[in-house]
Structure formats: structure tokens, C-alpha cells
Amino acid sequence: MAEKFKKILIANRGEIALRIIRTAREMGIKTVAIYSTADRESLHVRFADEAVCIGPPSSTDSYLSIPKIMAAVEITNADAVHPGYGFLSENADFAEICTEYGVKFIGPRPEQIRQMGDKITAKDTMIKAKVPVVPGDGELLKSVADGLEQAKKMGYPVIIKATAGGGGKGMRIINKPDEFQKAWDSARAEAKAAFGNDGMYMEKYIVEPRHIEIQIIGDQFGRVIHLSERDCSVQRRHQKLVEECPSPFMTDELRQAMGEAAIKAGEAINYEGVGTVEFLVDAERNFYFMEMNTRIQVEHPVTEEVIDHDLIKEQIKIAYGERLGEDNYYPKGHAIECRINAEDPWNNFRPSPGKITSFHSSKGHGVRVDTHVYAGYTIPPYYDSMIAKLIVRAPTREEAITKMERALNEFIIEGVKTTVPFHQWLMKQQDFRDGNFDTGWLGQQKLPEGK
Ligand code: ADP
Fold first, then answer.
1. Does 160 map to a domain?
2. pLDDT beneath 50: ranges in the chain
3. Which of 161, 287, 298, 299 most suits a substitution to test ligand 1, by most atoms within 8 Å of the C-beta?
4. Measured between alpha carbons, how far is residue 41 from residues 52, 256, 355, 373 in Å?
5. Are residues 82 and 29 in the same domain?
6. Do residues 302 and 404 share a domain?
7. pLDDT tens-place string over residues 4-60
8. Which pTM was predicted?
9. Could you tell me which of 191, 197, 147, 186 has the C-alpha nearest to residue 168?
């Protein structure tokens, strides 16, 4: 086994940076925070052993700047880098540069990030591993005419997606040919604005889909295990709002089959680290590989709560060469996570940055809050609007919902609008309580009017 790291630089911000600092400290490893001038007051800066300012607010000049991050690695003498999620976490070049500098990138090897980052290669790899995939070859669409021809072959409904996609942007469902042009124009404009790349590809739209993903871990010796699923079907415009484990839609047989498929996916690329294999599951419980995320995910705490393991610790142990045990992990009890965003849920989820004047986070048995904010903290407008994750754990789903309602009621955030009222509304919906929802469900609901 390689030597334990002495100092990890966290190439990220916000709650995930803080989350990593906590585990590193418990493992006796020193931490370095990096921050932009907009994040001086963030808790990750305060709680790390050292902190380096790496530039102005704009992500391109700070959290996405590889030269600046590598300079911070050099001056602090860090021997490992944890990329968190988002930013450079799935950037194979960054992983490669870390390796060239002789620092360990806590995550998969660059070639594994590349294999899964490219959607065409990812699907080909899965097909070879005999994992069912969402129909569609992933090739770039040349024009509307080309798209119409392919959609005819595939059969409607179809979905067009941005090749550079992420966060649900640049995606449109098309039910019939005369909807094509409009969907094409708006998806391309959205993709261009978000990613500077308007390349599109097409997939069969899986009807009434549930988004169910399998958490996997692979070690450096070729062993891959799974840690069961997360259901992320409560989505707004293809973005996750609530996640839970186990999935209310899950059966033992389906978990077995999806778990095996996810392991095959990991084994096919000799996966090293924690990763998530995302599937869409239709009403008949057929499942289709969608994509693999080669990093820790926002929603990892629900898995941690029901399998009672620290996934960041697992990542670090794998990175310094520890072997995995033989067993897969199965959920005990039920966990739900609500993403608390600084957005006004009753006004189209409009971002609401600004100063938090008062803050009281929920507490009590089975309640966990992962956050980097506090009373007096100003939410900068430059980054993601997520300010906290509220996670509850209870023996059954019903009790978890009751606990979540209790916890939401005592979560006080003043000065900015948040999605707490949305989650309070959601917990009361009969369909949610019954586990009766797919990724389109929320879009069909009438939300309370703006105040
Ligand atoms: P991103 O990378 O932008 O997050 P994903 O490819 O992970 O995008 O898809 C996000 C969501 O979009 C999925 O969880 C699902 O709700 C929806 N989606 C994507 N592809 C399909 C499809 N082929 N059929 C049905 N829904 C889809």
C-alpha cells in the first residue's frame, strides 16, 4: 500500500469542499482550500489548515484555472488533489497534469474519465459489456433534415441533447416531426449560451422514466462493487431536486440486475474510485444505461446514511491503494435528501443571491445538514445556487418523509428566498408519498402561485 497522503488540496468550493475537509481531518490529513475573491468568507476557507486565494470570482479565472490550481499545489506542497464535483472533477487533462506533477488526483485515471466523458465511447463500452443502453448512437446531428430522418427510424418520442451537456441544459423532448425545428433552435441556443458548443445528438425518449443510479466503487486491483441505488426522479427541467435510497420503485430482482450491470460497466474500464452509473428505468422496469459520472456526486450522502460508510473516506483510501472487500452494500432504513437552493420556488425558481440575515439549520436524531453558509454569509451570484443539503434517515420511507417535514419546518433561512417551501409542498403531495412519480411528474404539477 502506498503511503497515506499528508496534505490534500481541495480544488472546489462550498459544501463539498467543507465535506472533504471534515473527512480528511478525521483521517489525520492536512487540507488546503483554494478560493476566489468572492469566497473569502466561506466556511471551507476557515476550516482548512491552509487557504490560497487563486483569483477573481469568475470560475474560468479561479476554480477552472488549472495553472492557478497547480501553482497553489506547488506552494503548499500538497501531495494529493480532491476535485469534488463540478468544476474540474471530470476533466481528464487536469487529472493527467496532477499525475505529471507527481500529485495524486483523488478519482479515476485520466483514460477512464475520457472513456466515460465521451458519450459515444461510453455507450460503445457499455454495449460491449452487454449492458442495455438508451437507444441512439450518440453521433452529432448534422441538420434538422438529418434529425428528422433519424427520428423517423428511431420512432417518436425522441430527445435531443447537447453533446457538451450538463445540469439538464440543452435538452428537448420531441413528440412529432412538426415540433422538431422549434426544439432544435431553442436547444441549440441554450447549449451555445451554457457551453459555447451547440452540437446535438439524439436518443429515444424513454417514456415515464425514473432516474435510478447505482453507486459503485472500484479499487486499484480490478475489484468493483456496488452500494445500491439512488432514485433521483424528482426533477425540474431535467435537474435533480430530491434524491432517496432505496428507490420506492425498486425490487430485489431489479436491484440485483442493475447492480450487476453497473459492476460490469465499472469492470469494463477497470474503474478506480467512486463513480455513479446512471440509468433510466421505464414503467415495465426495463433499464437503460444513460451515462457514468466519474466523481463523487451531490447526492452521495443518502447512500452514506443507509449503508453507514463515508464515501469520501472510501475515495481517499482507494487513491492511496487500499483494497476493497468482497461484498456489495445494501440499504438499511431509508434516506432522503432535499437540495436547498437560494431560489424563489414560486417565481419559476428564480435565483435569489444575497446576504443571509438569519440561519438556523434543522437538527435532531437522523437529521444531517451539509452546508457552507451561516448567518451573515453573502451568497455570491457567480456559482451554483445550492446552499445546503438536508438529509434525513429513518427506518422506513414513511418515517423519513415525516422526519423531513419536521426538519424542513425548523429550517430557518432569512434574507434570501430558498426552496424550503417547495420541499414542504412536495412532502405533502400524495403522489410523492406513494412513490408514484417519474422524471416528468413535477413538470405536470401546478405549483402554488408566487407571493
Ligand atoms: P445532464 O448530463 O445534463 O445531467 P443527463 O443525460 O444526465 O443530463 O440527463 C438528465 C435527465 O434528463 C435524466 O435524469 C432524465 O430525466 C432526462 N433524460 C435524459 N435522456 C433521456 C431519455 N433518453 N429519455 C428520457 N429522459 C431522458
1. yes
2. none
3. 161
4. 13, 46, 12, 9
5. yes
6. yes
7. 899 999 999 999 999 999 999 999 999 999 999 999 999 999 999 999 999 999 999
8. 0.95
9. 191
